[in-house]
Amino acid sequence: MTRSNLSFIREDLLNLSAYVATPISENNKQLTRLDANESPYNLPQDLKAKLALIYEQEIETNRYPDGSHLKLKNLITDYVNESVNLPYLISTNNISIGNGSDELIRSILMATCLNNRGSILVANPTFSMYGILAQSLGIITHTISRNEIDFSWNLDTANKLISKENNPPIKVVFVVHPNSPTANCLNSEEIQWLRDLPKDILVVIDEAYYEFSQQTLVSELPQHPNWLILRTFSKAFRLAAHRVGYAIAHGDIIKILEKLRLPYNLPTFSQLAAEFALQHRDLILPAVKDVMTEKERVYQALISNSLFKVWHSEANFIYLRLAENPTKENHSRIMAQLKQDNVIIRHTGDGLRISIGTSLENDNLLNKLAKHN
Ligand SMILES: *Cc1c(COP(=O)(O)O)cnc(C)c1O
């Protein structure tokens, strides 16, 4: 094909670096995949068989999915209320469901910042999708650096940046609780800062790892009409394959997100899988404990290796850097060596992020790391 000059494409997209996901191939079965913070556990076989039966008996493949998501919204509402022991905290009007949280992040950006109306603020290192999706929409991302010791926000710097004459002004602050890749929860100063932020700024609190950290700000939502909490089925619920995430917020924000999403954004089978996972959560979520026990074991092994500086983790992954010469090149080299040994980890934010796998996978990782000492 002759090369087009792409003059019809927005110029700002030509040098956008997209999120790079590890390709899935036959060969992946032999890989130790510790790069995406997924659960290492497939759904139990008997549950999968039941889910398959639901597919056979209930799905009409010729029909569009339920575009209201009402059944799933009801189940999510119960789950959220039950988790904080507040039976009437939220209702289905406080929930919007996306094709992964990623879709919701994009809708939030469209709702707040598009047409040069606003910019966003994040503290690096953090989840890269906020910046990538913002850039894809031509939205400016302001970044500040986290404190190098505990990865907390430098709140003075953030306040100065927010009160500056930004054009366009900062309309959204994204925080992750606990943060990826650094695995720390928000501290009490940061939470107070979020409470005190001006009401014309939307505060997005991404709780993708809530089931691991057991920390949530959901009970404070009623007092904060400018807060929005994101959750996902991709991590503790073991449903990354199905792409389901949800937002919890005041009804007025939710109405806007519902207007922006595609009418049939959630395939029928994904809705059924998420409903099924919630209905069987007593069989699915206990594995979180196993993962956290393994995390502690891997953490202890890593801190006894003087090669690395390792941070405490409140999630199902561990962040570390080389103790000496923590350069991008040296971290890339470790990642590449592990890859040669079929162990995949993530190089992110000037450090390495290792997801917790099964105990066999974790042993494999620790052995391979020791080999390169
Ligand atoms: C994994 C993760 C998500 C989940 O995204 P999905 O699109 O729901 O799979 C969201 N936020 C953060 C910070 C994550 O690490």
Describe the 3D structure.
- By secondary structure, this protein is an alpha/beta fold.
- The chain folds into two domains: 3-44 and 286-372, Alpha-Beta Complex (Aspartate Aminotransferase, domain 1), CATH 3.90.1150.10; 57-283, Type I PLP-dependent aspartate aminotransferase-like (Major domain) (Aspartate Aminotransferase, domain 2).
- 39% of the residues lie in helices and 16% in strands.
- It has 14 helices and 13 strands.
- It has helices at residues 11-14, 45-58, 70-83, 100-112, 129-136, 155-163, 188-196, 210-213, 251-260, 268-279, 281-284, 287-303, 328-340, 359-371, and strands at residues 32-33, 95-98, 119-124, 141-145, 170-176, 202-206, 227-232, 245-249, 308-310, 317-322, 343-344, 346-348, 351-355.
- The strands form three sheets. Strands 2-8-7-6-5-3-4 form a seven-stranded mixed beta sheet, sandwiched between helices. A four-stranded antiparallel beta sheet has the order 9-10-13-12, with helices on one face. It has a two-stranded parallel ribbon with strand order 1-11.
- Helix 4 packs across helix 5.
- The chain is globular and about 55 Å long.
- The termini are far apart.
- The model has no long low-confidence stretch (mean pLDDT 95).
- The structure holds pyridoxal-5'-phosphate (PLP).
- Pyridoxal-5'-phosphate is lined by residues 37, 100-102, 127, 176, 180, 206, 208, 232, 234-235, 245.
